[in-house]
Amino acid sequence: MLPIIETDRLILRAPRAQDAEPIAKYLNDFEVAGNLARVPFPYLLSDAKAWLRTRHSDVEADDANFTIEIKGEGYVGHIGFHPGPDGPVIGYWLGKPFWGRGIMTEAAIASLDWFFDTTNAPVVYSGVFHFNHASLAIQQKLGFTQSGRSWLLCLARDAEVEHIDTELTLGVWKARRT
Q1: The whole model's pTM is what?
Q2: Residue 59: C-alpha distances to residues 23, 53, 141, 170 (Å)
Q3: CA pair distance 18, 77, nearest whole angstrom
Q4: CATH for 157
Q5: How does DSSP classify residue 54?
Q6: What is the average pLDDT value for the chain, to the nearest integer?
Q7: How many domains does the chain have?
């Protein structure tokens, strides 16, 4: 069962059916969807509903997905983990009206604290498309380091895009959190 994680400003909780409309609203923006690998554009309400049907609250930590809410404002984005070829991968997105307010950094710290406390994973992987400087800056603040470059399909762009691969080790995370 996924916990509810609270920070000073945020609530991270399991996604639910009533999140479909804000998910579709924020992901049907090319500036958001074009930064993500697995999100088509346009992004329709039916896409959000279909994705939500795949989410369950009784999942393992390496397949956990959290809705991000700002206390008193509601749904603003998403952060989650999924199994990757080398180990767990963290991914995230935020609706454009909420960019530049430190929300994703706060959500990522809380979710990574939970993840490393819940699992025995020695590393978490992530990455950004080469043009997504804001997301790369968040990852660098968190302690992620670049581990290589690859090409990754971006559904919204219908193209293979250069990707900066990153990783965060448990040791680095613990050292930064003390």
Answers
A1: 0.95
A2: 21, 14, 28, 21
A3: 14
A4: 3.40.630.30
A5: T
A6: 95
A7: 1
Token pair 């969807």 is at which residue?
33
Q: Is the bond into 3 cis (omega within 30 degrees of 0)? A: no
pLDDT value of position 57: 66
CA distance 157 to 151: 13
Q: Hey, how many other C-beta atoms are within 10 angstroms of the C-beta on 29?
A: 16
The pair of three-digit structure tokens given for residue 60, joined into one six-digit string: 């393992």
**pLDDT single digits (tens) 14-45:** 999 999 999 999 999 999 999 999 999 999 99
Nearest to 34 by CA among 80, 109, 96, 90: 96
Structure tokens at 102: 């430190």
50-85 pLDDT per residue, tens: 999 988 767 778 789 999 999 999 999 999 999 999
Instruction: Please tell me the distance from the alpha carbon of residue 106 to that of residue 77, in angstroms, as a whole number.
Output: 12
User: Contact at 8 Å (CB) between 125 and 88?
Assistant: yes
Dist. CA 160–CA 157, nearest whole Å: 8
Q: 11: how many CB neighbours lie within 10 A of its CB?
A: 19
Determine the Cα–Cα distance for residues 68 and 136; give it in Å rounded to an integer. Answer: 19
Q: Hunting for tokens 């984005």 — which residue is that?
A: 77
Structural domain harbouring 164? 5-177
Distances (CA, A) of 79 to 12, 50, 105, 158: 8, 18, 11, 23
